[in-house]
Amino acid sequence: MRTTQQLSITLPTEMAGLVKSKVACGDYATESEVIRDGLRALMARDRAVEQWLLNQVAPAVDALKADPSSAVTADQVRARLATLHSASRILA
User: Fold this and answer.
1) How far is CA 32 from the centre of its chain?
2) Which letter does DSSP use for residue 68 in this model?
3) pLDDT for 52-63, tens place per residue?
């Protein structure tokens, strides 16, 4: 049984050129290797986002539901960001 599947893909010219240049300079042996590596990076990013959602976002939402008084308004966030921005401009 085959463990690979052949696909035909169409890329924008700029992306196709990048794939070809990665092979031409010796970073990869084949165009397929470039695409596989890109897909692995995409999968790793997706896993990282999933972990962030599970480990940080969901608990923060649960905490907010448990204690709605801990929430801050959009105006409070803007004021805090303006303060931080002003402080960074003074230091620069």
Assistant:
1) 23
2) G
3) 999 999 999 999
